[in-house]
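Take a look at the protein record below with the fold in mind.
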Amino acid sequence: MTTLQRRDGRRQLADLFEWAEGLPNLFTMPVTMRGVRIEEFTEEDKYVVRAELPGLDPAKDIKVEVANGMLTISATRQQEEHDGARSEFHYGALTRRVLLPDGADEQAVVAKYTAGILEVTVPLSAKAAEARSITIDHTD
């Protein structure tokens, strides 16, 4: 192999890594761009959903909606980094939907954001719909 062939091979390898550098890296990408990790549980008379959303401004970056028995958490992130002659721009959006349990009071949902954790609390009414047997009418 000649020096020219080695240099050309290294250039191709460098081009490959330069191309891959532009792709999203799931290990270094902020968690808010990969997806929302949540925990959900029922506690006494309320249903609680906690979502990891670090580094966001809840007033402008996070949206919580409730409709038709579904809780939707949406977030967007925009980040710019400037380092001398180089700058990078990261952005991403995500949405996570959770089915609310029976008896959820959609009109009394409360959300708070503390130390990168969004906590959504949904009161549960004692009159949750119970399963009942339905009589089937039969006609010939």
Notes: The first strand starts at residue 38 and ends at 43.
